[in-house]
Each structure stands twice: as structure tokens, then as C-alpha cells.
Amino acid sequence: MKELEERIQADGRVLGADILKVDSFLNHQIDPALMQRMGQEFADLFADQTITKVVTVEASGIAPAVMAGLALNVPVVFARKSKSRILSDEAFAADVYSYTKQTTNQIRIDKRFLAATDQVLLIDDFLANGQALLGMKDIVDQAGATIVGAGIVIEKSFQPGRDNANQAGLTRIESLAKIAAFEDGQVVFDQA
Ligand code: G4P
User: Fold this and answer.
1) NCBIfam families per the record (predicted)?
2) Cα 125 to averaged position of ligand 1 atoms, centre (Å)
């Protein structure tokens, strides 16, 4: 998505070897108009699919997921991160390890909000190592629902997230911006 790439070039900041800071428009301060256009882009990219629900993880996935849900006219459910290690019978749960933060979060979705009949679009802000996607897939699988694909705002193609997701059977991943590398503090995008 050209507008997103231009915004990343204008307002993103590369931190160290592999982190892109986009907190001025994506995951701290939010540009709602851009977010809405990204939601529409996800809806267009998956227009060939029947989707009954959008699933994401708090916190930063919620904004793009809500905009995708708005464009698709379906409910959005976000997995909550919980410090509790105690499994409830009332929730589907999965462990998600964050390489960036070096912590494990249990993510949970109340069983009332996922049914075996659901056709689910997964949404997240970043695809890095793929652990969040794998955790969401685990939960949707527990519900017996179907995943139609995953929509990602920013994919770092030089990290193993897509491969890890593909190996887990998540084969349809649409990313609005794909970053091939950071070179001298500059973002280099994958050629479309
Ligand atoms: P993974 O889910 O693809 O495996 O990602 P990883 O463990 O590497 O990253 C963990 C967290 O760091 C995720 O947020 C992810 O969105 C975020 N992250 C990964 N790479 C970048 C990056 O280059 N820039 C920024 N800004 N964030 C990145 P999270 O823990 O779920 O946090 P949040 O949703 O509560 O913000």
C-alpha cells in the first residue's frame, strides 16, 4: 500500500538492527484516516473470501482490526493478554512468546465469541517472528473455526514470521507494507 510505505518513510524511525518505530501514527498515537483506509485495503484484499469475524491481539492489533471489521461489516474480537497462568474452561487460550520483549503472554478469547462456524480473518500490526499469528491460529483451531487468512500492516520480510506461519499451515498472508531490510537507518521495501 503506497500510502503506508510513504508514511513509514516520512514518520517511521529505525531503531537498532531490526525495530521500526511507528508510534506517531500506528501503535501509540493513531492516524484514524490512514487506519480506516488500511481497513478497507484488507477488506479489498480478502474480497474473494467469506469472513464472519476478525480476530486480533491487544493492544496494537485492535485499531487495524476494528477498521477491517468496519469495512467487512463483521464483529471484531481481540485476544486479551493475561498474566494468569490458570486456564479457564470459559476461554480458549494460547501462549505467545515475544522475541522482542523476551516474555511469554497467555492470550485468551472467551468461548462465547468464537464458534466452529466462524470464518476468521486474523489481523495484526507487525509480522516479525510470527508468534502472535501462531497463538491466534491455535485459539481459532481450538474453536474449530476456519481461518481464511491473515492481514498484516507491516511485515518484516527479513524475519522468519511468514515462514513460521506457513509451516503452521497459515498460507494466505497479505501485508500492506513489506520491509526487506533496514540499511543505514533507512527502510528498504520489498518490490511488489
Ligand atoms: P511476532 O508476534 O511476529 O513473533 O513478533 P515478536 O515476538 O518479534 O514481537 C513482539 C512484539 O513486538 C509484538 O507486539 C510486535 O507487534 C512488536 N514488534 C515486532 N517488531 C516490531 C517493530 O519492528 N516495531 C514495533 N514497533 N513493534 C514490533 P506486542 O508484544 O503484541 O505488543 P502490543 O501489541 O501490545 O504493542
Assistant:
1) PRK09219.1, XPRTase
2) 8
